[in-house]
Amino acid sequence: MRMHYTLKFNPRVIQDLENEDDLDNVVSHSDDFANVYIVESPGVEAIEANIPNTQLALGGPHPTFPSSNASCDANPNTMMLSRGFASRCADTEYTPLESNRFREAILGSGHTFKNADEFRNAIYQMSLAGRFQYKYNKNSPTHMSVKCSVEDCPWKITAHAVEGNQILRVYTYQVNHNHIAQDECSSKVRVSSKRGAVVVEDVFRTTPEYLPRQLYKDFERDHGVQLTYNQAWHLKEKAKERVYGSPRASYAYLPWLCHRLREINPGTIAEYTSHEGHFKQLFLAHAFSIQGFTMGCRPVLAIDSCHLSENYEDWYWFLEKLKGILDGQEVIIISDRHQGILRSVSELFGVENHAYCYRHVKENFSSFFNRQNIRGKKGKEDALLLLDNIAYARLDIDYNEAFEKLVRFNGDLARWVAENSPEHWAMSKFLKKRWDKMTTNIAESFNAWLREERHQTIYTLLMMHMDKLVAMLDTHMRGTDKWKSVVGPKTEEKLMSNITRSAPITVMPYLGGTFKVFTGEVYLVVDMPAT
Questions:
Q1: Are 439 and 359 spatial neighbours (Cβ–Cβ below 8 Å)?
Q2: Keywords assigned by UniProt (predicted)?
Q3: Which of 102, 253, 309, 487 is the most buried (most CB within 10 A)?
Q4: What residues have CB less than 8 Å from 529, skipping those under 6 apart?
Q5: Closest CA to 232 of 210, 247, 253
Q6: Range of weakest confidence among 187-201, 430-444, 452-466
Q7: 59-68, 280-289, 349-358: which range is least confident on average?
Q8: Does the structure show a pLDDT above 50 at 76?
Q9: What would you report as the CA-atom Rg of the chain, rounded to the nearest whole angstrom?
């Protein structure tokens, strides 16, 4: 006789149970349940033991549950007396499904639940493990009666409220089914997003970005139930609500939160708008962030759209608030050319201060290239390299040379460049200082920085963001104590590199902050007016 077990976090790997160390693993890693398999010989029939906090099954060395749509060729008049579909088909080899752990969600008569909703969750989990449908004869907070949907099946569980409170105690506990093969073949678990959310909520605690398409694949693999994409999406939303709270309820805290942020940190701008009782917009700028930007940062801001519901009015409102805290300081806005951003930046900051993200421009150029009759991967690589030369050229003469090369390569591609506002993304054509900032990557880095937090409710998101921001600033402040000069070590390294590279360059000062610079190849005029 040999014993095996599976662990909660990896139920598809069967472990040997041979000594006390293995037994300790079962206890320490299995929480309130464990799947244990005792192997005597191939083909031994599976049975179940009603042991509190433990699930015990006897079977072959490689147990496997059939899928919910498995065909049955048995005589339709053959009666099956058992406790669940998983056990009813145990004479075949099976790998335990994740839902197998729910077969004893209710342990028996006397089992108590803190309220009716917890009882309903347990019933659903039992149906998921046993692959059967059920219906309520009584469904109230004080009296629950559930039976199998198959006619004349004796499976039945009842529970009554303990006098004076919401606690339910199980009284009737008849969990043997009496089905014919046709009932088994037509068995299909009802999909409930509310009840199913209890089953998958742990996944969203550890993986907030878990996608519906991942969920419906994993749900079929783990529980033998096929979901539609729509069902998976609703299941995800319900699970997130159980983990993070109700999004709708969290908006009610915004007025208080905005008031407290302004109160405890004078100078903070925290404003929100609503329409007919529904949240609409939020602008938040912490006082320390405002002060840090205006006193110590280059005047360049990257903004990124999410293409969900924002429009021109939303962006105008946001950018108007942003302009208000800058107190007249001129800034360069880098964006992905969202239509609402294009219009509002032009009206509030001036079209000349709007730089386009080169990465987005390059992606659009690549898409245009794909529609041309230009074959070969090498051709596309060459075209993108020519575009890079155009974008990063610092002098007009270099820009013109790179553009002429693109014209000779393909006239349609050159025409696309000319028609897509190079004065907003090509370095030599942009008239304002953009400090070599060519993309909105910093904005997307911010999104990645809040990868987990952004799945929270709005209240929790704001609180977690503030905690994370303060921790980051504290770390940076401690780092500045180690600086040997007024700039950090990375900036110091860049300065020394530039000083070395500038050794062969000669500079002749003119009046009014103008300098004549000879690089060894060309003469340049550099304007550096005193501020």
A1: yes
A2: DNA recombination, DNA-binding, Transposition
A3: 102
A4: 512, 513
A5: 210
A6: 187-201
A7: 59-68
A8: no
A9: 33
Query: For residue 444, what pLDDT is reported?
Result: 78
Q: What is the largest CA-CA distance in the chain?
A: 106
Pair of tokens at residue 417:
């460049």
Chain centroid, CA 105 distance in Å: 30
376 has a pLDDT exceeding 70 = no
User: How do residues 223-269 score in pLDDT, each as one tens digit?
Assistant: 777 888 888 888 888 888 887 778 788 888 888 999 999 998 899 99
DSSP 276: T
Q: Is 63 strand, coil or helix? A: coil
- Joined together, the tokens standing for residue 492 give 């110091």
Residue 193 CA to chain centroid, in angstroms? 19
The answer to whether 427 and 392 have CB atoms below 8 angstroms apart is yes
Residue 210 and residue 237 in contact, taking contact as beta carbons nearer than 8 Å:
no
First CA to last CA distance, the chain: 88
> Region 20-49: what's the mean pLDDT?
59
Q: Are strands 54-58 and 35-39 parallel, antiparallel or unpaired?
A: parallel
Q: Which two tokens stand for residue 330?
A: 């001129």
Tokens 């694949």 locate to 217
Strands of the sheet with 332-335, listed across from one edge: 300-302, 332-335, 354-356
Query: Which is more confidently placed, 7 or 425?
Result: 425
Q: How far is CA 421 from the centre of its chain?
A: 34
Nearest to 417 by CA among 431, 437, 400, 434: 400
pLDDT band for position 28 (cuts 50, 70, 90) = low
Residues 227, 210 contacting (CB under 8 angstroms)? no
Any idea what the Cα angle at residue 138 is, between residues 136 and 139, rounded to 5°?
Answer: 80
Burial 99-111 (b: 16+ CB within 10 A, else e): bbbbbbbbeeeeb
Counted residue by residue, the chain has a size of: 531
pLDDT of residue 158: 92
Q: Which residue has the tokens 């729509």?
A: 230
- Per-residue HEC secondary structure of 198-256 comes to HHHHHHHHHCCCCCHHHHHHHHHHHHCCCCCHHHHHHHHHHHHHHHHCCHHHHHHHHHH
- Whether pTM exceeds 0.85: no
Helices 229-244, 212-223: axis angle to 10 degrees equals 100
Handedness of CA 113, 119, 124, 130 (dihedral sign): positive
Average confidence score pLDDT of the chain: 80
- For residue 497, which phi and psi values (nearest 5 degrees)? -65, -45
- Return d(Cα 390, Cα 433) in angstroms, integer: 18
Own/partner pairs, 459-466, CB within 8 angstroms, 24+ separation: 459/250, 459/251, 459/253, 459/254, 459/257, 460/244, 460/245, 460/250, 462/257, 462/284, 463/257, 466/286
